[in-house]
Amino acid sequence: xxxxxxxxxxxxxxxxxxxxxxxxxxxxxxxxxxxxxxxxxxxxxxxxxxxxxxxxxxxxxxxxxxxxxxxxxxxxxxxxxxxxxxxxxxxxxxxxxxxxxxxxxxxxxxxxxxxxxxxxxxxxxxxxxxxxxxxxxxxxxxxxxxxxxxxxxxxxxxxxxxxxxxxxxxxxxxxxxxxxxxxxxxxxxxxxxxxxxxxxxxxxxxxxxxxxxxxxxxxxxxxxxxxxxxxxxxxxxxxxxxxxxxxxxxxxxxxxxxxxxxxxxxxxxxxxxxxxxxxxxxxxxxxxxxxxxxxxxxxxxxxxxxxxxxxxxxxxxxxxxxxxxxxxxxxxxxxxxxxxxxxxxxxxxxxxxxxxxxxxxxxxxxxxxxxxxxxxxxxxxxxxxxxxxxxxxxxxxxxxxxxxxxxxxxxxxxxxxxxxxxxxxxxxxxxxxxxxxxxxxxxxxxxxxxxxxxxxxxxxxxxxxxxxxxxxxxxxxxxxxxxxxxxxxxxxxxxxxxxxxxxxxxxxxxxxxxxxxxxxxxxxxxxxxxxxxxxxxxxxxxxxxxxxxxxxxxxxxxxxxxxxxxxxxxxxxxxxxxxxxxxxxxxxxxxxxxxxxxxxxxxxxxxxx
Length: 609
Prior knowledge:
This protein is an alpha+beta fold and 609 residues long. The strands form five sheets. Strands 1, 2, 4, 5, 6, 9, 12, 14 and 15 form a nine-stranded mixed β-sheet that branches. The protein is built from 14 helices and 26 strands.
């Protein structure tokens, strides 16, 4: 039976069935809630707390939190750091805020206390939709029983020390209203003590016949910071019997005179800690300066501190600046003062890399030496190993001190994130002590480096029986002492035009110190087959005579194995029968250790002699 053609509509649909799966996915993605894309974000924008003191030492605490909700309905909020004996009341409410006040929706709020935190739950399983909510709730606590209200040395004066809740993302505005019964002396914010995290606090006092109200406002609280409020109260606001000290009779009428608070042991300990920190840093700077000067003198150069002054002056200035930085951070001075003092202390402790002596050497003569000339002489250890991060002992000590700083910062962060961050940033003061003025920045001793490197290279080259190896040295004409060592390499069957191969060390200054790089000096007669057999990229200069030409070839890696491989490669090129294949072989040898000098540049004439 012949197949009938499909109608036009069916044929159009059948050709576009491949569009069905993508369209289904797009429809599914469009139906997903916005929260699946944007995620859920919850932040407390402002906090207002009313602390109503009872005459028996208890308190009723009422909170008002303005919460911003993004991406998901408001279901629950966990408030950490509340009073551990909190007894929630059943009058909590949550209000959805909108642009028009008549559309605000207020519903009951579930409040549950557990382990020093409150679980605030919106009604219903799905929560409330909206962007801004106002949460109001209250609980009772016993401040006197927990020691939050205690008598002071001044007769008839008590101190309320209350710790506010913590917020995960911080709060831009925090207000505390302390309400107490009327007394002869109004409540006031207590003077700052060591460890207090007031920041900038504005206070307003309102008095009436029945009670006093002190309003405290702080503009910002950092992330996860617990704000401790300390308020002085007159004893007349409480019943005398429960608040009197043991064995002390009831207080008479309060006197209007006010005595200055005595310094507490914590304040003295804080002051001693600040002074001790500065003294310890001054001692470190003095020890570092003394060791850096001695190490530089041993290498024939001079230490260069950032701020040129004597060791004693620099140590004292660094210690004073460190004490100033610690004091500014501990006593809540402006942060820029602490940062500036810390930078000044680090500047007095830091060193520039020393400058290597650049006096030109006089004339000399190269002569063959005995094999004992390559024997390694014992090196004297440079001082300051414990304060040098480039050496094992100094690195371990730096790691231990940084671990101690991190531990102290973690402990301080629990009390105040600001103080914890200051402690962590203060650990940067160790860097100029351990990371500048290092032994690796000093000029290297050329003869010691040459002996160490050439003895290893000679041992490797001795495995090839076709090479004649012996050390040579340059004897200065002024004092007849060896000032440079090289290794002379000659094949047993001389190559036509090859006058000799020499392996030596050249000292280079690099970022962070000095380095010793090996170099091979090829000496050939001008126009000889040996010179033509080598790659054309080599730069040739005049040698020790008018007929001699010398070229410097550097290995890619500064080790003995790569240098020996380069010498063997050069010999294989010069022993080739034809220069053209040799040049092609050198150009195709991408994995070889041969590294020539740049074209159109001249190498140092010192290596040609």
